[in-house]
Write a structure and sequence with these properties.
Layout: E1 6-8, H1 10-39, H2 48-72, E2 74-76, E3 92-97, E4 102-109, E5 120-122, H3 126-131, E6 139-144, E7 147-156
Parallel strand pairs: 1-2, 4-5
Antiparallel strand pairs: 3-4, 3-7, 6-7
Amino acid sequence: MEAKEILVTEAGYKELVDELEYRKTKLRKEISERIKGALQEGDLSENAEYHESKEEQNKNESRIIVLEHTLKYTKIVKHNEKKKDTVQIGSRVKIKDLEFDEILELSIVGATEADPVTGKISNVSPLGSALLGKKKGVAVSVDSPGGVVKYEILEVN
């Protein structure tokens, strides 16, 4: 089975690299020190600190594996300055919900960078994919659990 490319912005790639470096160096060492300290406490069967530290170590190592896999298949998508008026990965977009007259500011990012709480939506999300390739002034319709939602693109940066 061939692995699929994972699209990320330049900033997203840096975040992944930084997180991997932190987890492999600083966090690994901190967890190791906690495990060593807990081992000195003696009886491991009732040593909560030891078990919590081992669980944290397992989570950290799992995340390292995920990050390494992600970086192996990552393709950095650079914002095309020639098409800066067109929505693309890396664009900052201001849209208006036409039903509720609500303005939203979003960044279109790769799936691994998505964080709707901070306004980063994935290029493969229903809204993200509907916006890609569109320009200011264009209206898009997005299927949602509550029905079709219509947006107008107000700005593309």
